[in-house]
Design a protein that fits this description.
Length: 304
């Protein structure tokens, strides 16, 4: 039996990973939080080396999965010291202690390590991040590769799914459109929307099989954000007319975005039984959960 420690298990992907590993009795599953204490997790401050040492001493993990990061791209661009301390310094600390315990490390990274000029990208393309968030994630990748003997880097992007506690793109879309609010959506941000439970299953199977290296773990479709929103609104029975197509340059964002991005999935598709899901497949799963939620809400109102 292996012991897995999920750093950031209170987050969107972390919660899903915690659930997936917990359901398999071949693993002892533990997780950490930094702000939201759920699921009986351990508190961790990744900038505090002694804190990390104490957690590893208590749990003695075989596998460490790092989902934790400061991911707000705009915030990272204007708060570079904080972003560095968490996304780079924190990874240095985790890598240092993971190395002592000879852990396999799974590091969740991003398509933002690329500049978005020549996408979609495979795993061999040179990394050229154009914003500070992307630069810190690339630094994290290099730390893991240089310090950890057995590692897997899982690059992903636009992770979506049903989670009332999450502000992922689909949850924002559902909230706004169900309240009859308009949304401005870029037509020129091309990426690979990724269904969160599918991503968790791919990471889990990779750990089961002992897969090492760098892998793109995203959905199978490459598409722009506006068309993704249109497809989602259609499947979720929301008003597509509330979606306003715009160009990224009109948003006035501080941090540059990789526009023509997206990730190729041929490498991971050849290895795993859990294949990257299409946008249609992922959104159908979201619809099932959304419909269930609406029924439950109606039942609550009727009961009251």
């Amino acid at each position: 039996m292996k012991t897995v420690l999920i750093i950031g298990a209170s987050g969107f992907l972390g919660k899903e990973l915690h659930k997936v590993f917990k359901s398999d009795n071949k693993y002892l599953t533990y997780g950490t939080y930094s702000k939201n204490n759920i699921l009986d997790l351990e508190y961790v401050d990744v900038t505090n080396l002694d804190n990390i040492k104490n957690i590893f001493k208590k749990i003695k993990p075989n596998i460490v999965i790092i989902t934790m990061a400061l991911t707000n791209v705009e915030y990272c661009e204007v708060n570079k010291e904080e972003a560095y301390n968490i996304n780079v310094g924190g990874i240095k600390n985790l890598a240092k202690i993971s190395k002592i315990y000879d852990c396999k490390v799974v590091y969740v990274s991003t398509e933002y390590v690329f500049d978005g000029n020549d996408g979609p990208y495979d795993e061999t393309y040179d990394e050229t991040p154009i914003n500070y968030y992307g630069k810190t994630k690339f630094e994290g990748e290099k730390i893991i590769q240089s310090e950890i003997k057995e590692y897997m880097i899982a690059r992903t992007t636009v992770v979506y799914g049903w989670d009332l506690d999450s502000k992922n793109f689909i949850m924002q879309l559902i909230q706004n459109l169900s309240e009859n609010k308009t949304m401005k959506i870029p037509t020129d941000q091309i990426s690979s929307p990724t269904y969160c439970p599918n991503l968790a299953q791919m990471i889990k199977e990779s750990c089961d099989k002992g897969i090492n290296g760098i892998f793109n773990m995203v959905g199978s479709n490459v598409m722009d954000r506006y068309n993704f929103a249109l497809r989602a609104a259609e499947i979720l029975d929301l008003n597509q007319k509330l979606l306003i197509p715009i160009e990224t340059k009109t948003l006035g964002q501080i941090a540059k975005r990789p526009l023509n991005a997206g990730l190729k999935v041929e490498k991971i598709s050849k290895i795993l039984n859990n294949k990257p899901m299409s946008v249609l497949e992922g959104l159908i799963e979201v619809k099932k959960l959304y419909d269930k939620y609406k029924v439950e809400q109606c039942e609550e109102v009727a009961y009251e």
